[in-house]
Amino acid sequence: MLKNIDKYQVIEEIGRGAMSVVYKAIQPSLNRTVAIKVLSPELTKDNLFVNRFNQESIIIARFNHPNIVHVIDKGSIDGTFYFVMDFVEGSDFKTVIADDHTSFKEKMNVFIQVCKALGYAHKNRVIHRDIKPSNILVDKDGNAWLSDFGIAKVNSAYDRDLTCADTVMGTWNYMSPEQRTNSKEVDQRSDIYALGIILYEITTGKKPEGVFKEPRKVNPKISTLLEEVILKCIEQRKEKRYQSVDEFKDNLLKSLKGVHIDNQSKNKIYEGLVNVQEKFQLLDIIKQDEFSSVYLFNHREKQQMMVIKAFPRDRKGIKVARNLQELQHPHIVNILGVGESSKKFIVVMEYIAGGNLQDRMIQEYHWREIMAMGRQIASGLSYAHKRNIIHGNIRPTNILFTKKSVPMVTDFTLKSHYRESKDKINWYAPPEPVISTQGDIYALGIIIYQLIAHQLPARDKKTGHLNLDGMRGKAPVGIQRIIRKMLEKSRRSRYQSFDGVISDIKRVENELVMCARKKAERKIRAERRKKGFIVLGSLSVAILFIFLIVYFLWIKFPTQSKEFIAYLQIYLQSILGK
User: Fold this and answer.
1) Active-site pick, 86, 92, 100, 130
2) How confident is the model at residue 213 (pLDDT cuts 50, 70, 90)?
């Protein structure tokens, strides 16, 4: 066993696979325990495996999700390739599933966390391709950590799939039918199939191998709804499965009816939400902190999923929320009801199933996609501004997406609770302290810049001006000018309304379309001229060639040539009727 890997002190081996070995180690500089994944020595000379190993570390390093392992460091030394991750003190999900002392509630709590992690990965165009219980770590507090993206498929213009078309990769018992045939056919529905196998295993204690029994025939205690969810996941044809992890998760939550939430948490939630239990069934806790709580409920009568948010009592927030109830716009989340008590105010909202923009920030977008998204968000904010409602806290977490990836704005006028410090700055807040139309424009400008440049802009500490050079070469100059105007330090120098932003985006896009069209037309004309020259040149060569042959025949056989020309002349005159 290795004693040291670069600056890390190895303690023991904790895992071994076909491609790599995982060690528990100490990072002396911070005196903390870490996990180090090392590429097997026999594979270090194979570029395919080295590239795959490096891709895994890059994929995980991009992610920022509480249920995905975090990469701390990576490198190579003396031919040894490695990357360093957080060490998870606990066990893997395979052990947890087999443990009879772990309740169904606890197992499902872990499983739902995995669904959220995988949904996040899919939103960022990463397919895991090796979902199985041993690749899910569970710490001592019951938190799930999805790991081992070693054979992941990255659907991005900036990454490429390193798997050959006829290669089969994964773990057989959890592989979908299409994955067993060809890894190139794998998409998010293949990962969903693997989740279905795990769910079958949790509920029945067995894997569905060969001709398997329906879950309720093995375990009659599970509900019909839960059985339907499991069977839809493991359909042989991927077209019949759930088409996204979010769709699967939502249906699973409906079937579980909050069984994964401990009773103490349920009682605490219902204490703060008066009369809610009569109308709504708690499905999940989305967020809970000292500032606000967000819960997913199902309306018992309408059988419709809704989000209930509870905030500290705020007269302005209540007033705006009630005003927003009257608004209907395709890019603003609908508020269905507002309530208040002596300490809190509660907002009931439609459930937007596609997650928020923060979960998609590491995705590689084309500038056209970004500006289309920006126009839609600007349209919703413009609609609100014309009705005297300023958002005041635009940030990626307040932009949600529908199942069809349509952006929608939420949480108008709610306090940000974003404490600024040396290491934590509210990058979306404008330089001026007042809440205004121009402040919302500035915040959206930062988001658009971040999506294009894949980084936040650097801010000069003395002048307060932003360095926006990160978007050079990544968007047309006209688009860059719009973003720079949105992010002017002076409020007066910015756009004065979102209508101006939308108008300029459309104008620049139309100009670019016209430019591209003219360029295409010039290319077509040039190709036609080129073809014309080729045809003319070919015809000229042919005529010259015929002339040379005739000339040669005339010189070589003058008598016969004269007779031939005479006959040809008579023939042509007869055809022409002369």
Assistant:
1) 130
2) very high
